[in-house]
Amino acid sequence: MGTAVSARRYSLVAIVLHWASALGVLALIGIGLTMAHAGLTPMRQFQLYQWHKSVGITVLGLTVLRFAWRLFHKPPAHPAAMPVRERRAASAAHGFLYLLLVGLPLTGWAVVSLSPFNIPTVLYGLVSWPHLPLAALVPDQALAEAIFKRVHAYGAWLLIALLVLHVAAALRHHFILRDDVLRRMMPMRGSRSVSEPLGSSR
Ligand code: HEM
């Protein structure tokens, strides 16, 4: 009977969900900043809002799938040489990233649902998406909309800062520490890491 070991690499499903989310989030940041600040014509702005809402709800769906997958599939362990404080920092950063990947779509959805213009959301021009039933719950709809807008925008900047950290940490692991942390999230084969006992997992 062999000792239980954690996987060396992320599963293909986890890898696909990770990179699809990354692509979606980058698109959302680009579209979001452009539609909110570039002084577009109302028609162009409307189109970008529809794209933003469609990709944003998709990222919410991907995040729910990631949570579900993670419930049953343990991620690979941290490298054995990684100091405890770095393990904690990595787990905290990943926790915040997940929080924002849920919080940003929900606050964006709340903004749209509270807007006095009551603009329907039709995902990718195909699927009609409902508003959250918030209007009946808040005493001051305009104030609630303004608060959610503020939280959504600040949350987006926090996400951008965390993404910079996340990418910098991945590059440090790859080019300076020369371990497997980035490679095991890549879709190709060829991990050089040694499996570690389940107990040392994050
Ligand atoms: C991970 C998901 C998301 C990210 C990273 C994101 C990012 C952004 C960014 C960067 C902005 C510009 C903020 C500013 O500087 O004013 C923005 C604005 C906005 N987003 Fe999102 N967004 C996400 C999801 C969503 C979703 C799902 C919806 C709606 C269903 C949505 C609706 C909006 C709206 C209505 C605005 C404009 C708010 C305003 O007028 O100030 N977002 N978003």
Compile the SSE list and pairings.
Elements: H1 12-37, H2 42-72, H3 84-114, E1 121-123, E2 127-129, H4 141-176
Helix pairs in contact: 1-2, 2-3, 3-4
The structure holds protoporphyrin IX containing FE.
Structure commentary:
The chain has a single domain, classed as Up-down Bundle (Fumarate Reductase Cytochrome B subunit), CATH 1.20.950.20. 61% of the residues lie in helices and 3% in strands. It is mainly alpha-helical. 17% of the residues are buried. The chain starts with 11 loop residues before the first helix and ends in a 26-residue tail after the last helix. The protein has 4 helices and 2 strands. Strand 1 and strand 2 form a beta hairpin. The site of protoporphyrin IX containing FE has 24 residues, from helix 1, helix 2, helix 3 and helix 4.
Précis, in short:
61% of the residues lie in helices and 3% in strands. It is an all-alpha fold and 202 residues long. It has a single domain (12-192), classed as Up-down Bundle (Fumarate Reductase Cytochrome B subunit).
**Low-pLDDT segments:** 1-5, 191-202
- Major β-sheet annotation: 2 strands, antiparallel
- Count of β-strands: 2
Level-2 CATH architecture: Up-down Bundle
Strand order of the largest sheet: 1-2
Number of helices: 4
Total domains: 1
Structural class: mainly alpha
- Give me the CATH superfamily: Transmembrane di-heme cytochromes, Chain C
CATH C-level category: Mainly Alpha
* Estimated helix fraction: 55-70%
Q: Could you report the average pLDDT, rounded to the nearest whole number?
A: 90
Rg, please? 20 Å
